[in-house]
Amino acid sequence: MVELSLPITLTFLVYLVVVMGIGYLAWRSTNTAADYFLGGRNLSPVVTALSAGASDMSGWVLLGLPGYAYLSGVEAGWIALGLCIGVALNWWLSAKRLRIYTYHLDDAVTIPSYFQRRFCAPGPWLRIVSSVFILLFFLFYVGSGLIGAGKLFVTVFGLGYHTAVIIGGSVIIAYTIFGGFLAVSWTDVFQALLMTLALVLVPIMAAYSIVDPQSFFSNVENSNPELLSWMTDRNGQPLTFIAIASLLGWGLAYFGQPHILARFKAVKSPAMVRTAASIGVGWSILVYFASIMVGLSGVAYLQAPMEDSEKVFMVLVGVIFHPVVAGFLLAAILAAIMSTVDSQLLVSSSTLAEDLYPIVRGKSLTDQQRVTMGRCSVALLALVALAIAMDQNSKVLDVVAYAWGGLGAALGPVTLMSLYWRRMNWQGALAGVLTGGLTVIIWKQLEGGWFDLYELVPGFFLSTLAVLIGSLMTGAPELKVAENFDVVQNSLSNNQ
User: Fold this and answer.
1) 3-class DSSP state of 394
2) H runs (alpha helix) in 352-450
3) Which of 150, 172, 408, 484 gives 256 a disulfide partner, CB atoms 3.0 to 4.6 angstroms apart?
4) How far is it, in rounded angstroms, from Cα 383 to Cα 388?
5) Model-level pTM?
């Protein structure tokens, strides 16, 4: 446990005051449902890029990934490589088209509403099924963030795990409920910068704190030379095709992450996407590389093995830095957690308020009712996620992997293909969502042989196949669906 001190406590309090202040300012600027759920589609390229990155990475980039690198060494680089490729492809293939399409389709706020309007689905089932999968997997995703918050407060303040989870969750719920998308996006920029500083500074200072900085990698090699090999695991066994495909496959999920896609929809102009993409991809490469270096720093610097590898960042901060600096850097973990959990809560609440509740009620809501329902949904979903997070033996990376894979397989192929394939119809979209989501749920329960492959990979490709077969074996889409597609293509051609 990091030694509790007044400077660390004060630093955390200052951070929380800043975050709540941003939430208050955003609340003053939130008047409509479009403001609450998408910030009025008025984000700058810098805010769009950093907000998308921060909402993507969450606490696992300071807990789960460094912990994996601490145990497995540069093998973790396969995950980082897959994620960097996924980030780049998502920006280049999805961002501009999705911004234009969702705006054209009566300002579609959520992914389920986009699917419904994109394919002119005659019934509510496409919207319902995609909404259910979003809520299911996001509850686990939010739960993983609260698990990380619990570990942070236990390590820093010595609180009981359950108390720590409740305190962390309460702060996130408060500013998400009142500030909405603007609060989430503005705090994400602040949190992204804080995360970057922390991840870069820790391995640099760890290297220079060793008597001979040149011996950094020598220390890692002396601990276990296999940690410096890309092609073997920590025991010296060659990585199998299944292992490498599973690690690289993490990048496939980006096309189906609603909290990241929301930033694409909220950028002020499609013309700004290229600038935002350059910032977003560059930032991601830096952060993933630094995260792996934190894990290796733990091997090189710490003498005694750690029981919980996911605490390596916290332990390094506690032993290397002055308490004032340590408190500032440890706040980066809370920043990473909050920047993702708030986004996921907001997307989940918009799914309830915009998609499911109006269907159950049988009529649409007024603008003010949508905002009120969204805020109530945040509180409800957060309580369920808190219940999931109460298992203190859960690993952040394991929970994230399941939720990440489920969203990527259920929504990713459908979203990506909807932006490029004119012949795609609602039957193919529904088949893709069902196939991807169910494959992840079922595959996760099996093991041995090919079932050791990360469930996202088969889920993504089976979903893609289901979209193709479902669309080609049913009738051509309605004329209006094709006309909408042509309008978007013309907008792209005109650089609008």
Assistant:
1) coil
2) 357-361, 367-388, 396-418, 426-444
3) 408
4) 9
5) 0.84
Q: Which two tokens stand for residue 262?
A: 């929301």
What residues does 346 pair with on adjacent strands?
none
The residues with which 43 forms a beta bridge, in sequence order, are 267
Using H for helix, E for strand and C for coil, what is the string for 240-301?
A: CHHHHHHHHHHHHHHHHCHHHHHHHHHECCHHHHHHHHHHHHHHHHHHHHHHHHHHHHHHHH
Beta carbons of 318 and 302 less than 8 angstroms apart: no
DSSP state of 231: S
Bridge partners of residue 238, in order along the sequence: 232
- Mapped onto helix, strand or coil, the DSSP state of residue 31 is coil
pLDDT tens-digit readout, 212-241: 666 778 888 888 888 888 888 888 899 999
353 close to 365: Cβ distance less than 8 angstroms: yes
Q: Which residue in this structure is represented by tokens 């991840």?
A: 199
Decide if 425 contacts 476 (C-beta within 8 A): yes
Among 333, 332, 340, smallest CA distance to 262 is for 340
- 18-52: per-residue pLDDT in tens? 766 766 666 565 555 555 555 556 677 888 888 78
Angle at 278 between CA 54 and CA 100, to 5 degrees: 85
Q: How many CB atoms lie within 10 A of CB 231?
A: 11
β-sheet bridge partners, residue 208: none
Q: What is the DSSP letter of 160?
A: -
Contact 28, 229 (CB under 8 A): no
* Residues 420, 212 contacting (CB under 8 angstroms): no
Is the distance from CB of 352 to CB of 381 less than 8 angstroms? yes
- For residues 234 and 296, is the Cβ–Cβ distance under 8 A? no
End-to-end CA distance of the chain: 54
| CA proximity to 191, closest of 6, 298, 52 | 52
Q: List the one residue out of 388, 354, 338 whose CA is nearest residue 128.
A: 354
Tokens of 464: 């893609």
Cβ-Cβ contacts under 8 Å for 58 (sequence gap 6 or more) = 141, 144, 145, 148, 336, 337, 339, 340, 341, 400
Low-confidence ranges of the chain (pLDDT < 70): 1-9, 12, 19-20, 22-42, 58, 155-156, 171-187, 211-214, 335-336, 338-339, 342-343, 361-371, 374-375, 378, 392, 394-397, 494-496
- In eight-state DSSP terms, residue 3 is P
Q: Which two tokens stand for residue 477?
A: 């889409």
User: Residue 403, CB half-sphere, CA atoms under 13 Å: how many?
Assistant: 29
Give me the DSSP letters along 186-226: HHHHHHHHHHHHHHHHHHHHHHHHSSSGGGHHHHHHHH-GG
What residue has token string 């025991």?
A: 235
- Give the Cα separation of 135 and 121 in Å (integer): 21
